[in-house]
Amino acid sequence: MNAPKGVLVDHIDRNGLYNRKRNLRQCSRRQNSYNRRGNSRGSSQYKGVFWHKVGRKWEARITYKGNTNYLGLYENERDAARAYDEKAKELYGEYAYLNLGDK
């Protein structure tokens, strides 16, 4: 795929070795960042989910265009991940990285 200068090529399934046209799309640097996995060094296995020490619950938050949005505190990690996924779909559309897939 020949992308114009300044445009990136994104792997839809995030597998850099799978280079079929159906798995590639053009995107901006910002859109490409939406499709990134979470930080592996964090307290949660999910992107956008963090252990809130004071509240002793799982916190969900998401960053969009430089602004961090607080999504709430949750009893369990999976519920926080679900809240992140819903907001990610709303904000990032087809470029969203979903923790729980389309479930």
Provide the descriptors you would attach to this structure in a database record.
single chain; 103 residues; alpha+beta; GCC-box Binding Domain; 2 domains; 3-stranded antiparallel sheet; two-stranded antiparallel sheet; 2 helices; 5 strands; elongated
Structure description:
The chain has 103 residues and is an alpha+beta fold. It has 2 domains: 1-36, no CATH class; 38-103, GCC-box Binding Domain. The protein is built from 2 helices and 5 strands; from the N terminus they run ββαβββα. A 3-stranded antiparallel sheet has the order 3-4-5, with helices on one face. The protein has a two-stranded antiparallel ribbon with strand order 1-2.
Number of strands: 5
Structural class: alpha+beta
Which spans of ≥5 residues are poorly predicted at pLDDT below 50? Answer: none
Task: State the CATH topology of the largest domain.
Answer: GCC-box Binding Domain
* Helix content percent band: 10-25%
Question: What pattern of helices and strands is seen along the backbone?
Answer: EEHEEEH
- Euclidean distance between termini CA atoms: 31 Å
Report the CATH architecture of the largest domain.
2-Layer Sandwich
* DSSP helical segment count: 2
**Percent of sequence in beta strands:** 25-35%
Main sheet overview: 3 strands, antiparallel
